[in-house]
Amino acid sequence: MTCRIRMPRPPGFSATRSDFKSILKLFYGDGIAGDFAELFASHLALAAELVRAAKAGNHAAAADAEARWYQNADQIAAFLGSINPYWSAIEWQKMLYDHLAMTKTEAVDLLTQKYEDSIALLEHIEREALVMADRMTQGIAKQFSQYFK
User: Fold this and answer.
1) By the 8 A CB rule, do 142 and 24 touch?
2) To 10 degrees, what angle do helices 17-56 and 59-83 make?
3) In the chain, alpha helices (H)
4) How far is residue 22's CA from residue 76's CA, in Å, rounded to a whole number?
5) 47 contact partners, CB below 8 Å, separation of at least 6
6) Of 32, 59, 113, 132, whose CB neighbour count within 10 A is largest?
7) In what helix (H) or strand (E) does residue 144 lie, and over which residues does it extend?
8) pLDDT value at residue 19
9) pTM to 2 decimal places
10) Tens of pLDDT, residues 76-130
11) In whole angstroms, what is the distance from residue 118 CA to residue 27 CA?
């Protein structure tokens, strides 16, 4: 049996919780897929919370949301590193931290009406998301090589 997968959309860019869950479920089962979906849902909720706090000018709430956003990135990195021997938690943490920093800067650019800067940064965010999608796909293909012949 051969299996071909393709990440439906770049992670963190326009991927949905159900996109990740359906791919991970194929290889890791419902439990792991569900656990990741919850971590990813928290990632998106914390990003929204951070933006709302920043828009409201509530610096303390924004700082708190940002700290929890990075803690969530640590959890995602550790989780991914624990389920696939070809995924490094340290590498995932670096990619996620880079992604969060760029995403925060892009949101600030939008809030301060620096639209050209925002558009330019979106191109970098998209490239980083594609790198993460590739890393995820490559790790799955290596771990489950019997399905990719």
Assistant:
1) no
2) 160
3) 17-56, 59-83, 89-111, 115-143
4) 17
5) 69, 103
6) 132
7) none
8) 81
9) 0.86
10) 999 999 999 999 999 999 999 999 999 999 988 988 899 999 899 998 999 998 9
11) 36
Tokens at 145, concatenated: 């090589």
CB atoms within 10 A of CB 77: 22
| CB 21 within 8 Å of CB 36 | yes
Q: Where do we find the tokens 């594609």?
A: 130
Q: What is the rounded distance in angstroms from the CA atom of residue 63 to the CA atom of residue 53?
A: 9
What are the phi and psi torsion angles at 16 (to 5°)?
Answer: -105, 165
What is the phi-psi region of residue 6: left when phi exceeds 0, alpha when psi lies from -120 to 50, beta otherwise?
Answer: beta
Best CA proximity match to 68, nearest among 92, 44, 37: 44
Q: At what angle do helices 89-111 and 115-143 cross, to 10 degrees?
A: 160
The residue written with tokens 């989780």 in the block is 79
b/e per residue, 79-117, with b = 16+ CB within 10 A?
bbbeebeebbeeebbebbeebbebbbbbbebbeeeeeee
Say how many residues make up the chain.
149
